[in-house]
From TrEMBL:
The keyword Disulfide bond does not apply. Residues 1-39 are annotated as: Disordered. One of its GO terms (cellular component) is ribosome. Keywords: Ribonucleoprotein, Ribosomal protein. The keyword Ribosomal protein applies. Residues 22-39 have a biased composition (Basic residues). NCBIfam families: ribo_THX. Belongs to the bacterial ribosomal protein bTHX family. This is 30S ribosomal protein THX.
Length: 39
């Protein structure tokens, strides 16, 4: 339940991977953020 645990968010950050607990940023999410910033 720490850095070595790949099933947790902290473990995924240390491992540099993405998944259910740490989803990778999608194009839709970044586009929505950019649009919200401009408005």
């Amino acid at each position: 339940m720490g850095r070595g645990d790949i099933k947790t968010k902290k473990g995924k950050i240390s491992n540099g991977s993405f998944g259910k607990s740490r989803p990778a940023k999608t194009k839709k999410a970044t586009a929505a953020k950019a649009a919200a910033k401009k408005a």
